[in-house]
Amino acid sequence: MKLLEDRILKDGNVLGENILKVDSFLTHQVDFELIREIGKVFAEKFKDTGITKVVTIEASGIAPALYAAEALDVPMIFAKKAKNITMNEGILTAEVYSFTKQVTSTVSIASKFLTPEDKVLIVDDFLANGQAAKGLIQIIEEAGAHVEAVGIVIEKSFQDGRALLEEAGYPVVSLARLDRFENGQVVFKEADI
Ligand code: 5GP
User: Fold this and answer.
1) Pocket residue to mutate for ligand 1, from 96, 126, 139, most atoms within 8 A of Cβ
2) What is the per-residue pLDDT for 26?
3) 60 and which of 69, 125, 139, 178 could share a cystine (Cβ 3.0–4.6 Å)?
4) From the alpha carbon of 27, which atom of ligand 1 is closest?
5) Broadest EC class (predicted)?
C-alpha cells in the first residue's frame, strides 16, 4: 500500500536492529485518515469472503481493526490483556509473549462474542514472530469459529511470523512488508496489496 509505505519512510524511526517506531501515526497518536484508508483496503480485499467479525488485540491493533470492521460492516472485538472484574462470565484465554514488552501475558475474549458460525479476519498493527496472531487464533478456534486470514498493517518480513502462520495454513495479507533495515532506513519488499 503505497500511501502507507510513503508514511513509514517519512515518519517511521528504526530503533536498534529490529524495531520500527511509528508512534506518530499508528501506535500512539493515530492518523485517522491514513488508518481509515488502511481499513478500506483490508475490507476491499476480504469483502467477498463472508467475514462476520474482525478480531485484534489491544492496544495498537484497535484502530486499524475498527476501520476494517466499519468498512466490512461487522463488529470488531479486541482481546484484552489484563484481567477485569467485569469479565465475570465465560472467557477464552491464551498466553502471548510480547515481542516489544518481552513479557508473557494472558489475553482474553468473552466467549459470548464468538460462535461457530463466525468467520474471522484477524487484524494487527505489526507482525514480528507471530505470537500475538497465534494467541488470537487459539482463542478464536477454541470458540469453534473459523479464521479466514490474518491482515497485518506492517510485517517485518525478516522475522518468523509469516512463515509460522502460513505453515499452519493461515493466509497472511500485509499492507507493508519490511525486508530489512539498512543504515537506519527501511527497505521494503513487495507488499500483498
Ligand atoms: P509478534 O506477536 O508477531 O511477535 O509481534 C507483534 C506484536 O508486537 C504487535 O502486536 C506489536 O504490538 C508488537 N510489535 C512487534 N514488532 C514491532 C515493531 O517493530 N514496532 C512496534 N511499534 N510494535 C511491534
Assistant:
1) 126
2) 98
3) 125
4) 22
5) transferase
